[in-house]
Design a protein that fits this description.
The complex is a heterodimer of chains A (154) and B (179). Chain A is of the alpha+beta class. Chain A contains 2 helices and 10 strands, in the order ααββββββββββ. In chain A, strands 1, 2, 3, 4, 5, 6, 7, 8, 9 and 10 form a 10-stranded mixed β-sheet that branches. Chain B has 179 residues and is mainly α. Chain B has one domain (3-177): RNA polymerase sigma factor, region 2, helix turn helix motif (Rna Polymerase Sigma Factor, Chain: A). Helix content of chain B is 65%, strand content 0%. Chain B has helices spanning 3-14, 18-38, 43-59, 70-88, 117-127, 131-140, 148-155, 159-177. In chain B, α6 (131-140) packs across α8 (159-177). Classes of the chains: A alpha+beta (154), B mainly alpha (179). The interface between A and B is large, with 37 and 53 residues.
């Protein structure tokens, strides 16, 4: 019959060995830690948050040569909507967007490796043609307001 | 980490204190990584899930109602992000023992580097135990050791069920590696 205390000791030994195994052979990568620390930069307490309200896809678009399909995301902050179409290009992403109601401004995309920006035309259309895959958020200045989308994985 | 410490850290981070934020990252990074990797995500996918989890915390720094449960909050968030990742790729969500969704086998970060025999044995043993034990054991490998609440959050199971499941999974593992 198993002595419970011996079993506990044996269990603790295995757990200790497992923790050591993980630390040696599957540690948190340095780049992941670095990106996590940098995540605080994504915080703008003065910005209005546009929440993700719908997410569809991937939708395979016939004849477009887009094996990854496109995803459609819609964010909303009050009466402002930001519609995104995300197309997969290997490890990269091509994002076309529509601001509703449209107005000319600039959009910034914060992603794991830095920042990209693009012009938004007076009809509210914009394109970020070469973003990395992974988490990203968009920021737009609309009149006196700064609006940013909830982070989403491209 | 005591609740007062966490409350202070969260408040400071919410105010833009990078050192406070870094302390939180250091404290919980292995737990978040373990939840992601415990769902058999590749390094790249686990990196995305981990970052998405931290970004969600950044978003909610003002709104963490129970600082003492931050670990469980992060584990729940990481689990949700992992499931979304799996669903998004059209791969099967792990649903129980015996279903192999063709995901990354549990194991070392780089399958190319040479592992000691014992290390290989341990990873293979963990990987052979089915989805629930796999995820649970990978989460248990986090440092500092996760609380039952954190483990429950990582698995999406009631806290009360963790003790018995933990015992069974560890027994099965021990039988394989130290018979």
């Amino acid at each position: 019959m198993d002595d419970p205390e011996l079993t506990d000791q044996a269990t603790e030994r295995v757990l200790s060995e497992l923790r050591d195994l993980a630390e040696r052979t599957d540690p948190v990568p340095g780049a992941v830690l670095g990106a996590a620390r940098a995540a605080l930069d994504w915080r703008r307490a003065d910005a209005e948050l546009a929440e993700l309200v719908t997410e569809t896809g991937p939708v395979l678009v016939r004849g477009q040569g887009d094996p990854g399909g496109v995803r459609l995301l819609t964010f909303r902050a009050g009466e402002v909507e930001i519609e995104l179409e995300i197309a997969v290009r290997g490890e990269r992403r091509r994002v076309t967007g529509q601001l509703v109601p449209g107005q000319a401004t600039t959009v910034e995309a914060l992603h794991t490796f830095g920042l990209a920006s693009a012009e938004v035309d007076r009809l509210g259309r914009f394109a970020l043609l070469d973003l990395p895959s992974g988490p990203a958020r968009l920021r737009l200045r609309l009149g006196g307001r700064l609006v940013q989308t909830a982070p989403a994985v491209l | 980490m005591e609740s007062q410490g966490l409350t202070g850290l969260l408040e400071a981070a919410a105010g833009g204190d990078q050192d406070a934020w870094n302390t939180l990252v250091e404290r919980y990074s292995r737990l978040v990584w373990a939840v992601a990797r415990g769902h058999r995500l590749s390094q790249a996918d686990a990196a995305d899930v981990t970052q998405a989890t931290w970004l969600r915390l950044v978003e909610h720094l003002d709104g963490i109602k129970e600082p003492e449960r931050l670990g469980a909050w992060l584990a729940t968030t990481a689990r949700r992000e992992a499931l979304r990742h799996l669903g998004r790729a059209g791969r099967d969500v792990p649903a129980g023992d015996g279903l192999d969704a063709g995901l990354t086998p549990m194991g070392p970060a780089d399958a190319g580097f040479l592992l000691a025999e014992r290390d290989t044995l341990l990873w293979k043993a963990v990987d052979s135990l089915g989805d629930r034990c796999r995820t649970l054991l990978r989460v248990l490998m986090a440092d500092p050791p996760p609380s039952y609440e954190e483990v429950a959050a990582a698995l999406g199971m009631p806290v009360g069920s963790i003790g018995p499941i933990r015992g069974r999974c560890l027994d099965r593992l021990r039988q394989l590696v130290d018979p």
